[in-house]
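Worked example 2:
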Amino acid sequence: MNAFIDASSRSAFRALNRVVKPIAKSGSMSPPRVGSGLVLLETTGSMTGLRRQVPLLATRLGDRVLVSTVRGDSRWVRNLEADPAAGVWIRGERHEAVAAVRRGPLNVVRLELTQPDMPSTAAAA
């Protein structure tokens, strides 16, 4: 029975992701510099080496983005464990990021943006 539940929920997530992915990539529901919203996370497949994208709800604190899941078998988490280099789409723009994964009842991934999305005041001067 668990295999059926896993297969059916994986299928449901894939269908939902196909609908939500363009919305996340466009940035129309992106989090502000401090707050929550929708991002598109890009990882490298740990088995295939191919680029993978998944829309996720996220909390943003400046140049740090936090995403999480209770699903222990989430492929995007395994992908980040294998290769922490990632891309995060925020406000319609792709940003490079480095991930740190913390496993537990709630798997938490901290993404540090390596390309700040706003110029610093020193650079603007």
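Residues 120-125 have pLDDT under 50 and may be disordered. Residues 2-115 form a domain with the Pnp Oxidase; Chain A fold (CATH 2.30.110.10).
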